[in-house]
Amino acid sequence: MRLVQQEGLRLAAKETACMIRSEGDPAMPSVETLRTLVRDEIIQRGEEGADTAGFKERWQEARSAEELWNLYRDLLALPIREDFPYREPSDLHSIRQSRDEGVRRFKMVICEEDLLDRLHGAWLGRVAGCVLGKPVEGWSHERIRQYLEGADAYPM
Hints:
Low-confidence stretches: 1-5, 17-23
Number of strands: 0
Distance between the termini: 29 Å
Radius of gyration: 19 Å
Structural class: mainly alpha
Largest sheet: none
Shape: flat
Mean pLDDT: 81
Oligomer: single chain
């Protein structure tokens, strides 16, 4: 499931990074938000096996939203190093080819209805976070509540 989430987020990020943005666009994240996004992406891409040498310096020097978006696009385009010890395929066929032999069906410890309810809730939370333009991914319920209360927006 984590792989699916990561790949979905990566694809969404690629689409977002390709959008044409202008300084007056209300949907455009602030420079501060972009700085955080790019900083986190440098770390993430390094952990995924991409060679991020020089990117921290470019990030520190970037001042405008345009510079940060260009840096972000460059990060997303980085290939995985040949010496990276892990292979993490993204498409179903490659995943199936790289997995070990063994049990293919596992007993679910949660009923399908509850699983679908959880997935639906997770998806709605993700969509709400994107629509609101706030980086709430990974935040606890309590942190989100505090944020909304501070903005006098709780309950929504």
